[in-house]
Write a structure and sequence with these properties.
The chain is an alpha/beta fold. It has two domains: 14-213 and 335-398, Crotonobetainyl-coa:carnitine coa-transferase, domain 1 (Rossmann fold); 238-324, formyl-coa transferase, domain 3. The chain contains 17 helices and 14 strands. Strands 8-7-6-1-2-5-14 form a seven-stranded mixed β-sheet, sandwiched between helices. Helix 1 packs across helix 8 (171-194) and helix 8 packs across helix 9.
Amino acid sequence: MIKPTASQPLAGIEVIELSNMITCSLAAMTMAAQGAKVIKVEPPAMGDKMRPLGTQKNGVSGFFHNCNRGKRSLAIDLKSEAGVDAVKKLIERADVLLHNYRPGVMDRIGLGSDVLRKINPKLIYVAVSGFGTEGPMADMPAFDHVIQGLAGFTDLQSSEENSFDFIRTFICDKVTAYTVSQAATAALLARVATNEGQHIDISMLHACLAFMWPDGMMHRTLKDDDKFEMSPGSDYFQTINYKDGGVAVAPLLDSHWEALLPMVGYPELLGTPLYASIASRMTNMDQVLEVLKNPRVDIGVEKAMEILIAADVPCSPCVKRDDIESSEQIKAIGALETYVTEAMGKLTAPTPPVLFEGKSTSQAEASPLLGEHSRAILEELGWSKDAVNNLIDSGDVKVTSI
C-alpha cells in the first residue's frame, strides 16, 4: 500500500475525474501534484473540450496540458452500459469523484451520488455546478465569462458607470478549481475520523463570490448607518506607466508617498490634506491615485525601481507574459520547469507552488492522449482483451497511442 509522505500527502489516494474544461481538471491535477492517482474519464468522440483549444501538438494543447499533467485517460461513453459499469467499478476502489456536469445529469445516467456512495460509502463525491443546484439559473450552462458577470467581476474591472469588462484570464474556473481541491482534501481528513465519505456541492458562483468578497465587497460588508466609509478595494490599483514599461506599486505608509510624489513629479502635494495621512488617502483612493495615472516625468522603469526600493515601497516591474520565463526572481524560486514528453516534445509548465518541508517538487509529467490508458484501465477492471476490442469497434471506447 502506498503511504503518504510529507512531500506527497495524498499518496495512495485515487481520484476519478469526469469533467470538461478547467474546474475539475485543475482540481484533480492539483491533487495529483500532491501524490494522488487520477483517472480522467472522457467522451470517446473528442474528449475534454480543452484538448483542441489553443497552441497544440499531436492533438494536445498547452491549455489542456496545463490542467491535466500526470493523469491517465479512459475514453468511454458514459451513455453506454459499459461506460456506467466502468465508472461503478472504478468507484469500488476510489477515494474521490469529481464532476462538473449540470445538476441532474449524473443521476439521469445512473451515476448519481446516492448510487455511487452506496457502492462505496467512503467515497468523497464532489459535484461542481455553475450557478448552484437551486434557483432560476440552476440548469443553465456556465463558463467563466458568465460567472464573472454575475459575481461582480466585470463591474470590478470597470472604471466607468454602467461599463463592464472581463478579467482576461479564466479566474472563476481556477478559483473554483482550488476550492474543489481544498474541499476534497478536507473531506478526506474528516473521513479519517468518521470512516465515512460524503457528498459535496460546490458552485462556481458561490466560490467566486467568496473569493471576491474580502476586498471587492469590503465597502458593502458593514450595514449599520454609523459606519466610517472608505474606498473600496477596486480603487487601490494603479500602475505607473513609462515609455519603456510599467511599475506596479502598493504605497500605504506616509514614507511611501514621501518618495512617490516627487518621483512622479508632484512634490508640491507632499503634506497636503489629501496625501497627509493613511485615513485621508484610503478614504479618497480614486483621487489619490490620479498622480500615478499621469506622471509628469518619465524617468523609466529602472530608475523608478531604484527610488521605490530605496524607500522600501512594495513594488515590481510589470513583466510581459512573453518575458516571464526570463525573470530572475521567477527563476530563483524555481516556479517553472522545462522538460520533454514523447507526444508534446519540449515544454514549460509551473512546478507545484506548495513547498512541503520547504522543498520544491516537480510535476514534469505528460498529459494523456485521449484514451491513452483506456485498454489498460478496462483490463484492470476485469474486461478481457476481446471485450475491450468489441467496445473499441462499437465506438463506446477510444484508444490512442503515441
